[in-house]
Fold each of these.
Amino acid sequence: MSSVVSSFNYKVEASVIIDNTDYAIPDGTINSIVVDYDYDKKNMPAIYVALRLTTDLYNKMVTNAETGIISFRLYKFNTQLQNSIISPYIQDKFTYIISGDPNYNEAMEKYAGSSGTSDVDSNSYMQGHIGLVAIGLSEDNNVLINDVVKNTNLASIIHKYTHHMKMCIEPFDHIDTIEQFIIPPINTITNFLEYMNENFCFYKSGYRFFRDFSTSYLLSMKGKPVETSNSDYNTIVISVCDPTDEKANTTAIEFDTSNKAYVIYVNANNITTKLNRVLSKKFNSIIGVDTLGNINELELNLPTYADATKKNILERVPNDNMELINNTKSSLESGSLVVSVIKNEIDTSILTPNKQFFIKSHNLVRKYDGRYILCSKKEIFYRTTSSFVCTVVFNLRKAED
């Protein structure tokens, strides 16, 4: 049994706060918004806004870029419900990055505008782009840690220093008792997790830490589902349709209540498969060496040709933690196949890294069917008459079997 979730549009509210004074950024001056999530290479999302500001407000923002703050709120609503509830999708205060110098012609442009006889708006405007960095996410990450822990475990240590954030944590592979361990002075959660993984290896597949606007994720590279309290299902099925299929261009998401999954229908022309055929020609085996001279070798499961000769990559393992070469192995194998998907007007908030993704492909590429992991997502919001429409481009890479 299934039901359909209708398409979504978005509204924006924004203002800039300078010296405790709030200057509204009119909704009509924002042309487009890009929210970039790189779950593999970065630790938090970035927002880029294209807008058309009055010269007066533009100059205020440029000259106060080091101390100014932007209050930004992005709301979503169901376009097919008559009384749809507008719910927040992103809301926070942000520091901003703005390029360019002030407009030194402001006074002349104001004079020219006010001296005319036309009833058209006499303000002068500047086109520009700003980058936004969430203050709350940055502050949550800046924690000074220096400790000696005894008779504990990895989960307890991680919880002790991340409990101030709403966390989604996949159970660790390392479950042994830690009798005593010294944590040297570390000033961010990101560096703390990196240090702990170098010593205890959270997951054989490697780990990802990403601070999203509503939840922070600490997950393995396996692509297994990890439950959270704010999601109905933890599985997303990408059903690739023939371009002639009526479902190919639907903007809705289907609820598959029998299999407890979201189903997204995608036109085969809007999905791209990228197979790295060069990687196996560089190396197909990894050799780890620790400080004691111990060696461990793992074969890489990469697409290659028959009778390929052995080509090794050498990795020096820190802290004699030989498990770390499994992280490298998983990363190389998973990155050998990446699938890019483009979809319009869906509720992109369901696309989160704690979910498992399955691709059911077009008949021509059935061999790529299987389980995938979300590695990046880029939401592009562009203006329509009274709201914003979203096109999302998300990349999936093959997960471990």
Amino acid sequence: METDFIYSFLTPTERKELDALVEEYKKASGKKKRRLGKRIEEFEDDQLDQVDALISNDQTGSLGGWFESLIDLDPDSPTFLSELDDATAGQTLKKLAWWTDQRTEYARDWYFKKNKPGNDNEEMYAQFEEEATDNLRNVLGQLGIDPDTIPESDYNDFTEIYYSRGYDRPEQLSEFRKYAVDTYSREEAADVALNYGEELRESARRNGVTHANDWFLDAENKLSKGEMNLNAYKEQFRKEATLRFPQFSDQLNAGEDLFDATAPWQSALKEVLEYTPTDMNDPNLAYAFEAVSNDKGMPEVMSIYDYKKWLRNKPEWQETDNGRKTIDSVLMGMAKRMGVV
């Protein structure tokens, strides 16, 4: 009764609960076994209801198609109503854009938690915010950093970071403390300030953030005096990137730069137009994330297939090596069919 694909959508607590039920089921007999079997079925039905909510919040659009593929509903198919085996279902799940978008187990668990029916409302999110803020204040206090010196906006933005990086887990406490030190400790700033100017600009570039040179000079000055921390600026750049490209908010909140999150589209651009983009302000790269929106007017990412098709429709594609070869091949095929060659 337990299935790998349902297991993939459980939080750690739910996994333990289901494991315990299954183990007890294997050892039971008679009425108890039937009762436990019914409980497991109810558990899985409840999880499927929760997954419906997850699908509705999936910006990649890939999760719904995956669920539809689990059962063959084609009446003309010889395998009509057959189910995809768990191993294959699990493998295909991990190839989805949805799965790769979440990147880590912590990010996936947070996606499940905040979109679970009953949790997807402002009141519950306020509770998540309160927990994240309280724990950040506690860790800062333990490190000798006055929590009241931290801007209120940082606390407001910390919830997504806290859960998507697993800082609510005991095994991530050391990483949580490291984040607090890297982001809010000022002591080490003066020693390495000379290297900060280039790294500061590089981080902005990787997240599609532009500022006047005076802004960067002012930031470098603050870094050299120990008034600011480089990692705090990096987090700021990711927040700015989230405002421009909300489609990548999960990756950005998990600590990934926008340039890394868009690597598949960069590869497609390099393959089709034969050049490598250097930053997120490249118009051909940005088009993949700014040209498509859903029925609610929210921006979406263009599929790699559609993106390559769009690139091949650009005049400059015909000037590339692969464009010329493709066109020559098509023309030669036409000539052969017409008996010219």
